[in-house]
């Protein structure tokens, strides 16, 4: 029967006290570098793993991180979770993943559940319905480390990690313009979300710089973030019913992109098929249309960076007063051919 190596085993093998080994494994300043090096080398060679239950009881830590996202099946968030796991596990933390399905009530319930599970910190990407942040502020004020990623809230003094939403939206819209499209509609997410405001700004900027009038009638919001297909269907049907139909659509999120293409296949016809460009990390979209150009976000890296900053907050021995707002670049994947004139 397999029996894992213990601190006492290491101490006996190296002729050290168990307390010395324990402090060396915890990187204590009380232990000289040479002893630390010996202990760590022996521990690694013999596959020593610290006992998370014993350690959590001793240090009053659970060595677990809560993750709150709208939907795990979303390609962007599944990739971000991979990044979160890569850093969490490397540092000895487990993660507990919860889904809000873009519901404010479920977000409140999930965050409360994670706090009751005594997680050491929480990574949050806000739901499309969230406009009241009291449930997050309360925990933050009580000292629970919290880091926002992707959909962020600026009203809290903590680290925030996002992609360059404004420039990504500008690239997508500019791409449509360069391919010959001029009447570009915008299918947006819930209007209060940070990503919605930033991506709308980039869309507007591209139109303005190219001398194309901004028509508010060409902008439609999906308040449920694409989780309600009927809402997306209605938005697409609105575009299709316009007297002067848009020749292209800039779509603001991964989930909305899939919903938009689904609706166009359902209600569109061969005589009218608008070009689509939008934010998406999903390869599944290639099955819908080869003419979908996408803005890819560095989801994996976003997860890595957000987790790294959260662990820094968790393990800091002193209060942290300086926080970073980290913005990662995006990439345009071109699939749209030039417009036939």
Give me the secondary-structure topology:
Elements: H1 7-14, H2 18-25, H3 33-45, H4 52-59, E1 64-69, H5 75-90, E2 94-99, H6 104-116, E3 121-124, H7 134-141, E4 146-149, E5 160-163, H8 165-178, E6 184-188, H9 194-209, E7 219-221, H10 229-241, E8 248-251, H11 254-267, E9 275-279, E10 292-296, H12 299-315, E11 325-328, E12 331-333
Parallel strand pairs: 1-2, 1-3, 3-4, 4-5, 5-11, 6-7, 6-8, 8-9, 9-10
Antiparallel strand pairs: 10-12
Helix pairs in contact: 1-2, 5-12, 8-9, 10-11
Rough outline:
elongated
Would you give the CATH topology of the largest domain?
Answer: Rossmann fold
Looking across the biggest beta sheet, what order are the strands in? 2-1-3-4-5-11
User: Helical percent range?
Assistant: 40-55%
Weakly predicted, low-confidence segments = none
**Radius of gyration, in angstroms, nearest whole number:** 24 Å
Strand content: 15-25%
The CATH architecture assignment of the largest domain turns out to be 3-Layer(aba) Sandwich
Order of helices and strands: HHHHEHEHEHEEHEHEHEHEEHEE
Any idea how many domains? 2
Number of helices: 12
What is the count of β-strands? 12
CATH superfamily of the largest domain: Response regulator
Protein name: LacI family DNA-binding transcriptional regulator
Organism: Olivibacter oleidegradans
Domain HTH lacI-type: 5-59
Pfam families: LacI, Peripla_BP_1
Give a written overview of the molecule.
With 341 residues, the protein is an alpha/beta fold. It folds into 2 domains: 62-163 and 299-328, Response regulator (Rossmann fold); 165-296, Rossmann fold. The chain has helices at 7-14, 18-25, 33-45, 52-59, 75-90, 104-116, 134-141, 165-178, 194-209, 229-241, 254-267, 299-315; strands at residues 64-69, 94-99, 121-124, 146-149, 160-163, 184-188, 219-221, 248-251, 275-279, 292-296, 325-328, 331-333. α1 crosses α2, α5 runs parallel beside α12 (299-315) and α10 packs across α11 (254-267). The longest helix has 17 residues, at 299-315. It is elongated and about 85 Å long. Residues 5-59 form the HTH lacI-type domain.
């Amino acid at each position: 029967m397999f029996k894992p190596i213990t601190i006492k085993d290491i101490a006996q093998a190296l002729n050290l006290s168990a307390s010395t080994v324990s402090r060396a494994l915890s990187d204590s300043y009380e232990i000289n570098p040479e002893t630390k090096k010996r202990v760590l080398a022996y521990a690694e060679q013999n596959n020593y793993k610290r006992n998370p239950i014993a350690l959590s009881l001793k240090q009053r830590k659970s060595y677990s991180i809560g993750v709150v996202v709208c939907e795990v099946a979303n390609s962007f968030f599944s990739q971000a979770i991979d990044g979160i796991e890569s850093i969490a596990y490397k540092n000895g933390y487990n993660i507990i993943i919860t889904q809000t399905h873009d519901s404010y009530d479920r977000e409140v319930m999930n965050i409360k559940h994670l706090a009751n599970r005594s997680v050491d910190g929480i990574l949050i990407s806000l739901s499309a319905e969230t406009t009241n942040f009291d449930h997050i502020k309360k925990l933050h004020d009580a000292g629970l480390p919290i880091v926002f990623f992707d959909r962020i809230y600026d009203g809290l003094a903590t680290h925030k990690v996002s992609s360059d939403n404004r420039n990504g939206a500008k690239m997508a819209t500019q791409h449509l313009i360069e391919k010959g499209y001029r009447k570009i509609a915008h299918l947006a997410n819930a209007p209060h979300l940070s990503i919605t405001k930033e991506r709308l700004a980039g869309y507007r900027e591209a139109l303005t710089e190219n001398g194309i009038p901004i028509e508010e009638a060409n902008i439609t919001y999906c308040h449920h973030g694409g989780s309600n297909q009927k809402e997306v269907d209605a938005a697409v049907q609105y575009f299709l019913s316009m007297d002067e139909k848009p020749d292209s659509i800039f779509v603001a999120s991964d989930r909305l992109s899939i919903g938009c293409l689904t609706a166009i296949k359902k209600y569109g016809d061969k005589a009218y098929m608008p070009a689509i460009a939008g934010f998406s990390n999903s390869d599944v979209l290639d099955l819908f249309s080869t003419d979908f150009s996408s803005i890819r976000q560095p989801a994996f890296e976003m997860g890595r960076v957000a987790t790294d900053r959260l662990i820094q907050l968790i393990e800091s021995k002193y209060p942290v007063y300086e926080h970073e707002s980290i913005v990662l670049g995006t990439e345009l994947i071109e699939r749209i051919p030039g417009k036939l004139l």
